Amino acid sequence: MEREDLKGRQASILRSLSVMPKKILSLHGQENITEFVLHDICQENCFNINKAAYFVNNPDFKCLKGVAGIAIQEVPQGLWSDIWRQNEKFSTYMRNAPFNRKVRNFSQCSLCSIDTPNDEIIEGVARNLGIDQPAHFSVDMKHGNHGLFIYEKNEHDDELREKHLIDGVSLLGFCPIF
Predict the structure, then answer these.
(1) Separation CA 71–CA 39 (nearest Å)
(2) Tens place of pLDDT for every residue, the chain, 178 residues?
(3) Which residue segments constitute the domains of the chain, with CATH numbers given?
């Protein structure tokens, strides 16, 4: 990628991330804010991710629970001019979105309470969700929880994604979990 293209892409990513806290606060009290944040993180002007799933791993309750999932190919293009302002329409769509439903219905024993290596378990979860070429990482959250982010790598993977994606995913930790 050319240096100027890289600078433009980095500016786009940072612009998207910098307005996210304000957007999160605009929907204060809404149960599915995580879906909105995940949607924006995956957009072309941000990290350009085709498929992503977010889980919370709670070691105290020994539970790994799916919170939100987005598959960009499932999202109708041009349906919303701004999902944050048309939150009821977007929420209705996400409630019925097949990939999101599959992620939200996922629940199993916590990663730390299973003898199988974490990478092996995560590969199985990704395979079950139909995520090709999966990548993942974990972020620390409030109350001793850990956010697990599994996403589909694609031809657009670059150093900017590697550098800033954890910052974007960390914003999911500010969203309520219901």
Answers:
(1) 9
(2) 577 777 888 899 999 999 999 999 999 999 999 999 999 999 999 999 999 999 998 888 888 999 999 999 998 877 777 899 999 999 999 999 999 999 999 998 866 655 555 788 889 999 999 999 999 999 988 888 899 999 998 876 667 777 889 999 999 999 988 7
(3) 3-174 (3.30.450)
Under DSSP, the state recorded for 59 is T
Gap between the Cα atoms of 1 and 157, Å rounded = 11
Residue 144 DSSP class: G
Q: How far is CA 132 from CA 39, 42, 44, 166, in A?
A: 19, 16, 18, 20
In 51-173, which ranges are continuous DSSP H helix? 87-96, 98-104, 118-129, 159-170
8 A C-beta contact, residue 28 and residue 14 = no
